[in-house]
Design brief:
Blueprint lengths: L1 E3 L6 E4 L9 E4 L10 H7 L5 E4 L3 E3 L2 E3 L3 E3 L2 E2 L1 H22 L5 E5 L1 H12 L6 E5 L17 E7 L7 H13 L3 E7 L7 H14 L3
Parallel strand pairs: 3-4, 3-9, 9-10, 10-11, 11-12
Antiparallel strand pairs: 1-2, 2-4, 5-6, 7-8
Length: about 210
């Protein structure tokens, strides 16, 4: 396991122990860091290589992957800039660590930047599991996601992500060819055991190389 400030993000990399697993790009929520989702990654994709960057944006001292103007309102120009920055980091990490295009596993702010990455730089990812994601861009890019697996897990009582947001995101991904699996769980914004179970099942069936 390594932790480094090289490349564009402080990050951790955990080498694979299962060659049949696609690598996983772990993207934390607001206030998280490169350590937050390591255990979750091991649990849902055992043996996969894990690439876990820390968001480069600070909001009141808390790391994020892009700026927001207020709760639920994103700085879309920054979303676009940071999505390209993250895609370039992923490409550099592929060369550095000798890994294939990863499957993103993002929570909250991390899920939002992963959604933007899929829309703006789809070649950077082999798929994505988006936990508590919102629509990152009002005008959705139309790049094809033909065949890419996408999991969306939302919470029925989530006070941050309206149900309509998750539904619209699922519709947009399906419209450009993604293989979408969407579920609304009896949960709030935080992750639960059903999130872990569904994500692990999805990784087992959708993301084997």
């Amino acid at each position: 396991m390594s932790e480094t400030t090289e490349l564009a993000y402080i990050h951790r990399f955990v080498p694979a122990t299962d060659a049949d697993r696609l690598p996983v790009l772990l993207l934390h929520g607001t206030g998280g860091d490169e350590h937050d989702l390591i255990d979750f990654g091991h649990a849902v994709a055992p043996g996969a290589a894990l690439l876990s960057p820390r968001g480069n944006v600070l909001e009141n001292g808390m790391p994020r992957f892009f700026r927001r103007l207020r709760e639920g309102v994103f700085d879309e120009q920054d979303v676009i800039r940071r999505a390209h920055e993250l895609a370039d980091f992923v490409a550099a990490a592929q060369l550095r660590y000798g890994i294939a295009a990863p499957v993103a596993l993002g929570f909250s702010n991390g899920a939002n930047i992963a959604a933007a990455l899929l829309q703006l730089r789809p070649e950077a990812l082999a798929g994505a599991a988006l936990l508590r994601a919102m629509v990152p861009l009002k005008e959705a890019p139309t790049a094809s996601l033909a065949g890419k697996p996408v999991l969306l897990l939302s919470g029925a009582s989530d006070p941050i992500v309206p149900a309509a947001e998750a539904a619209l995101l699922a519709e947009r991904f399906a419209a450009v060819g993604a293989r979408v699996s969407a579920h609304t769980l009896p949960a709030g914004h935080g992750l639960t055991q059903p999130d872990l179970n569904l994500t692990r099942s999805w990784f087992d069936t959708a993301t084997r190389s």
